[in-house]
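@channel sequence for tomorrow's demo:
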Amino acid sequence: MLIFDEVSSGFRFNVGGIHLKYGINPDIAVFAKGMSNGFPMAAIIGKEKVMEAAQETFISSTYWTERIGPTAAIATIKKMIKNKVPKHLEKMGLYLMENIKKIANKHQIKMEITGLPALMHFNFQYEDKSQAIRTLFTQEMLKEGFLASSGIYVSYAFKDSHIKKYLKSVDKVFAILRRAINENKVNNLLQGPVAQSGFKRLT
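structure tokens (generated this afternoon):
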């Protein structure tokens, strides 16, 4: 079976699921709160033969009659269509990716940018020192007023002014990282422990 997990990516690239954009019909596609602007909501769609398997089991929920999620989803989807939200997210994401790469090159920071424009990640390429560098990046960006990590989930609320302010701070912080790497003082500049590495530590 081909399953599209769009719990995080759903409705960011187009309204209705990325399978519509690429002309691929998965057996199952799963969506979540991206379709309802953060309100509790989920949807599972798929081919009839696969979806019919649900008839052989029992699905229960405490929230059968809860209506906030569906109401929020309808309102959100209408706004996404009216305001062409996915197009805005892609535009902002591409601008961020291009300029973060330029700033990294300017400061000779070794990093890789992955993912699609509206849901990007960048990874520092310094082997066993990468996690400490990422921690220092977060620490210094906090001083600039940004709760920043190595992932950026672009929002419709992002305006040009927000992006420019963020990139200005990235430029300043990457300069700090460059000096810390050159002088081998990354860990010395940390004001707390190195951040844990998320899912990697579980595998």
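heads up for whoever presents: Residues 160-182 form the longest helix (23 residues).
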